[in-house]
């Protein structure tokens, strides 16, 4: 497909003063950084000011990206799990300081008796990798996953270090929700009934098979695309080294091999498997559109899902140290990850990036929410994703210029 044909499918709108964001969005496609499709939505003080989409839901078949296109957003889903836990905390059903054994006594085996909800949400529980192999059918069996977690010995002494719980976070959060929700709902059902249906948010933790036709096809970056990423930002090499160059007995390597049916490789990408999309896995398998992702976190900022007082606790990371798994600083807390604000100062954006580039971030001072999704996966994630980073920076540049115009 030529770049001109892909540019023909770029649609949407931007509020006056934010035209640069559209220019950057178009340039991402024109310059070949967006190989497939993408969308970005930005809310400011409860109002959508940017909503752009374009490209292909599946370039290999010529299927274009439309208003109905949904995308797997990988670890961005973790922030939605964090919202669900925050809702239970806000309602008084659980505290972050609660020990897990207080509501799940069997959890305390093998040195896990002092682990708190807080340690799980901030990746300090030492449960980043499971030793027992997780079969596909196990992942859908709450009782089976309960036993796996109960029998697991921590990867390190809980509470002493933080290491990214890339996949296990999903099963741990599901257990927290089920055991503290008065209705004992799974995380997917809790979110659907308490958020998605009440506020008309199109975000799925467990997609109905009838909606599978709307999901975009994910494509891995080619070797050429990877070299371009490294050339423009050598930090991408760190991402490659995190899992690819670690010894076989490392926690990072264990994460990539269990479950074995989670594969992201050039020749095998199981995240395109519709069977995976039906699983309630709040670590990696959320499926949504950028406009719903942005609106969801705009509702959070408005205090619609839990109190603004609780939200204030999420302004800064709880942990900002070398991560035991990714071996680089990874600011995190309460189920969220953090980015330094592009305008400098001691400010943070709070949300969560996902593998391949999809990201949601909130500026709690400006009441800005940025949601970006793409099915043409990138090697970097978060601000290492060139396409997202340039869009994010353009949003804040426009915001600052508009403020200066008002003052003048």
TrEMBL record:
This is Beta-lactamase-related domain-containing protein. PANTHER family: BETA-LACTAMASE DOMAIN-CONTAINING PROTEIN 2 (PTHR43319:SF4), BETA-LACTAMASE-RELATED (PTHR43319). Residues 25-388 form the Beta-lactamase-related domain. InterPro entries: Beta-lactam-related (IPR001466), Beta-lactam/transpept-like (IPR012338), Beta-lactamase/esterase (IPR052907). It comes from Caenorhabditis angaria.
């Amino acid at each position: 497909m030529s770049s001109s044909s892909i540019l023909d499918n770029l649609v949407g709108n931007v509020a006056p003063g934010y035209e640069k964001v559209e220019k950057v969005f178009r340039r991402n496609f024109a310059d070949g950084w967006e190989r497939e499709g993408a969308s970005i939505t930005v809310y400011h003080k409860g109002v959508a000011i940017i909503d752009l989409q374009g490209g292909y839901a599946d370039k290999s078949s010529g299927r274009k990206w439309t208003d109905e296109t949904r995308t797997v957003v990988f670890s961005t889903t973790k922030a939605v799990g964090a919202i669900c836990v925050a809702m239970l905390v806000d309602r008084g059903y659980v505290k972050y300081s609660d020990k897990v054994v207080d509501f799940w006594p069997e959890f305390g085996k093998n040195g896990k008796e002092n682990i708190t909800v807080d340690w799980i949400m901030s990746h300090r529980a030492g449960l980043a990798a499971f030793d027992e192999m997780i079969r596909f059918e196990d992942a859908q069996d709450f009782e089976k996953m309960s036993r796996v977690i109960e029998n697991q010995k921590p990867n390190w002494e809980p509470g002493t270090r933080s290491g990214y719980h890339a996949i296990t976070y999903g099963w741990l959060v599901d257990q927290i929700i089920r055991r503290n929700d008065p209705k004992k709902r799974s995380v997917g059902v809790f979110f659907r009934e308490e958020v998605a249906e009440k506020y008309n948010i199109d975000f799925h933790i467990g997609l109905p098979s009838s909606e599978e036709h709307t999901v975009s096809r994910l494509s891995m970056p080619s070797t050429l695309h990877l070299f371009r990423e490294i050339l423009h930002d050598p930090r991408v090499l760190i991402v490659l080294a995190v899992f690819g160059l670690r010894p076989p007995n490392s926690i990072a390597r264990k994460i990539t091999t269990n479950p074995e049916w989670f594969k992201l490789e050039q020749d095998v990408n199981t995240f395109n498997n519709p069977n995976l999309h039906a699983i309630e896995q709040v670590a990696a398998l959320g499926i949504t559109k950028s406009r719903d992702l942005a609106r969801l976190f705009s509702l959070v900022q408005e205090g619609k899902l839990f109190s603004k007082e609780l939200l204030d606790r999420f302004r800064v990371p709880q942990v900002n140290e070398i991560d035991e798994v990714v071996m680089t600083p990874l600011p995190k807390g309460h189920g969220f990850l953090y980015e330094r604000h592009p305008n400098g100062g001691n400010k943070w954006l709070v949300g969560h990036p996902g593998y391949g580039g999809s990201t949601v971030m909130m500026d709690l001072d400006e009441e800005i929410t940025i949601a970006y999704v793409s099915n043409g996966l990138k090697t970097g994630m978060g601000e290492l994703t060139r396409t997202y980073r340039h869009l994010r920076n353009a949003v804040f540049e426009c915001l600052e210029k508009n403020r200066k115009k008002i003052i003048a």
